[in-house]
Specification:
With 276 residues, this protein is an all-alpha fold. The longest helix has 42 residues. The termini are far apart.
Length: 276
């Protein structure tokens, strides 16, 4: 449930941020609510189409090289986590400014209200599609149950929506960067854990050597099937009896994702240009 909650929180947060700033910038403009809701509906419909294709692909591969398919999907998910974090590092600081700029153009009459719907639809489609892929990967790794899905969606969606509401009312405008940094750390741990699981599937499929299995055994201290073990696994990918290749995959993924997300953004050409 915690993994699902983290993923839902991350995707909800970005949509909520865009929505909050657009709504704040267009406050008082007649018809903005209808266009806003139309954008939400359009983006959700697009994400639903992606979900249908993801389900069809999963069913098509069921029972045919399932370990290899699981490993590939998990690996693609890790790549998406890394790409998302890299995007957040490079563009997270400008996301709020871009949303405000769109709202400002609408308010000033330089753009019509349909731009509000298009912007929201793109945001919902992008983050909804990412959520579908993440959840598909988690389902393949056997970590999704009906209560877990419901609880994760409720907790993650509520947390992201609350922060969006706070941004709308101006409470966290100065703290948006910190929120994205927290999301980066949570996603880095999630991506590293999924990378270790992918390595395990590749070993099962015969595509990678185990490199000592297990490399350690902490089951007697913290069993994987205990409540605390499941929480630790969800939070930072804990495995009580990992193979050497799983440990290596975890360390490499965590280092790479943290480097992508936590290093300082590169200066733009304008910022690098020396002052006259």
């Amino acid at each position: 449930m915690i993994q699902i909650g983290i993923v839902v929180f991350r995707e909800t947060l970005e949509v909520a941020l865009v929505a909050a700033l657009l709504l704040a910038a267009t406050r008082g403009i007649p018809g903005r609510t209808a266009w806003f809701l139309a954008g939400l509906a359009g983006g959700a419909a697009g994400a639903g189409v992606v979900a249908l294709f993801a389900e069809a692909i999963t069913e098509a591969f069921a029972g045919r090289g399932q370990d290899l398919f699981n490993a590939i999907v998990l690996s693609v998910t890790v790549a998406m986590v890394a790409w998302t974090i890299a995007w957040m590092r490079k563009h997270g600081a400008t996301l709020a400014a871009e949303a405000r700029e769109v709202g400002g153009r609408i308010r000033a009459g330089r753009a019509t209200l349909y731009l509000l719907a298009v912007t929201m639809a793109i945001a919902v489609l992008r983050d909804g599609s990412e959520l579908v892929v993440f959840l598909s990967a988690l389902s393949l790794s056997g970590q999704m149950t009906a209560p877990g899905i419901a609880g994760g969606f409720l907790a993650g969606g509520a947390a992201g929506s609350v922060i969006g509401a706070l941004i709308y009312y101006g409470v966290l405008r100065a703290g948006i960067k910190s929120v994205f940094q927290l999301a980066t750390v949570l996603l880095a741990l999630l991506g590293a854990g999924l990378s270790a699981q992918a390595a395990g599937f590749f070993v099962s499929a015969g595509w990678l050597p185990a490199l000592s299995d297990p490399i350690w055994d902490t089951y007697f201290l913290l069993p994987d099937d205990s409540a605390a073990g499941q929480v630790a696994h969800a939070l930072f990918g804990y495995i009580s009896q990992p193979s050497g290749i799983q440990v290596a995959a975890y360390a490499i993924a965590l280092a790479a994702i943290c480097w992508l997300g936590l290093r300082a953004p590169e200066a733009s050409a304008a910022e690098r240009r020396p002052a006259a």
